[in-house]
Amino acid sequence: MSMKPNNQDSKQRILDAALDVFYEVGFEGARVDDIAKRAQVNKALIYYYFKSKEELLTELININIDEMLLMKSQVLESNDTFNISAYKEASNKMIDMLKHKKKILSILLGEILKNSNNEKISKGFEFFFPIMEDSIERMRAIGVDQARVDEGIIAGFFFGMMPVITYITIGEKWADCYGFDKSYLEDKFTGFLNDFFIENFIQFLKKEQP
Question: How much is the pTM?
Fold first, then answer.
């Protein structure tokens, strides 16, 4: 099989294959040979584009961060900081969009839980930042004290973002294990998220407004 260094289709196949293999067997368990086989390219072509597995993972994360930034700009369209309906609609849209990121979310969560090197952990958390960035900007825009912004970041990540990540990465397996209908689970999860987190977050903003 000959190398085609300028073939961008080959590079995309490598990235797609790496995402699948990392998701199926984990980053540490993934072999470049398996990625090459899945992508139907020569192993040497992978090393033409990427120096290592780490560089492949970094490229996947960077691509998804860029996509998350684009998604964020399309989700929360209302400029009304206290519009609960707009936040709930945005939350539902974000969950729908993040479903398509299940594989990269699972890979990143696995790397964070395995206590991998600091660079991979840092890149993993960097992936989540675009999702929370709008809320941080809105808190600062209405003059919320920095100490309270920090509290909002903590609450947003651990009571808003992490439940969503958990739902997306293991929700279907949980539903299968306990015999729940997946549509019912999604309806209830989004309802709980909106009722418990979104409404409390808006109340927090109103209370902190100078």
Answer: 0.82
